[in-house]
Amino acid sequence: MEELAAEVVVKGYALIGYGAAAIGPGVGIGIIVGNAVQAMARQPEAAGMVRTTMFLGIAFTEALALIGFVLFFLV
Questions:
Q1: How many CA atoms lie within 13 A of 63 on its CB side?
Q2: CB atoms within 10 A of CB 32
């Protein structure tokens, strides 16, 4: 019985940890997009290059969230 309670507590901590870890990529994506919009507003002729770089940054940042999601299931 005690082992089951310990397992529930560990899974609860894992859930809280993933929720907290999801905040980081959310903030990161917001910063990336905000800076990309600002860069495109300052230099519209470089919008294509900025957009490509922005999507790469979003993909890498989102990968961190997916790694956290996988770790949540492994615990």
A1: 6
A2: 18
Torsion over CA: 49, 52, 57, 58 (sign) = positive
Q: What letter represents residue 20's amino acid? A: A
C-beta of residue 54 within 8 angstroms of C-beta of residue 33: yes
Residue 27 in tokens: 């903030």
Distance CA 45, CA 23 (A): 33
List the structure tokens of 71: 């770790």
Across all residues in the chain, what is the average pLDDT?
86
For 2-19, write each residue's pLDDT tens digit.
777 777 888 788 778 777
pLDDT at 65 over 70: yes
